[in-house]
Amino acid sequence: MRSSLRKARLRAGLTQSEVARLVGLTRASYTNIERGHKNPSVVTALRIAQVLNRSVEELFSDEPPAGQAAKREANTTMDKY
């Protein structure tokens, strides 16, 4: 699941149906994107980001935020010992 996408939608106070309508998708299509079952086109990703007032990178990046990456690396390093 793309938790960043879901969290941003909830913070915006929007339902999946509302985001889908504003972006020009069916609710089912948007739900598949939010769940990570489908990848949006670049245009669709940009529209979703605009509706949710977030960057595309924040919503769709496979990389965790910088703080989380550092924590994960520290935990991995500690596991070696």
TrEMBL record:
<dbReference type="GO" id="GO:0003677">
    <property type="term" value="F:DNA binding"/>
</dbReference>
<feature type="compositionally biased region" description="Basic and acidic residues">
    <location>
        <begin position="70"/>
        <end position="81"/>
    </location>
</feature>
<dbReference type="InterPro" id="IPR010982">
    <property type="entry name" value="Lambda_DNA-bd_dom_sf"/>
</dbReference>
<dbReference type="Pfam" id="PF01381">
    <property type="entry name" value="HTH_3"/>
</dbReference>
<feature type="domain" description="HTH cro/C1-type">
    <location>
        <begin position="5"/>
        <end position="59"/>
    </location>
</feature>
<protein>
    <submittedName>
        <fullName>Transcriptional regulator, XRE family</fullName>
    </submittedName>
</protein>
<feature type="region of interest" description="Disordered">
    <location>
        <begin position="61"/>
        <end position="81"/>
    </location>
</feature>
<keyword id="KW-0238">DNA-binding</keyword>
<dbReference type="InterPro" id="IPR001387">
    <property type="entry name" value="Cro/C1-type_HTH"/>
</dbReference>
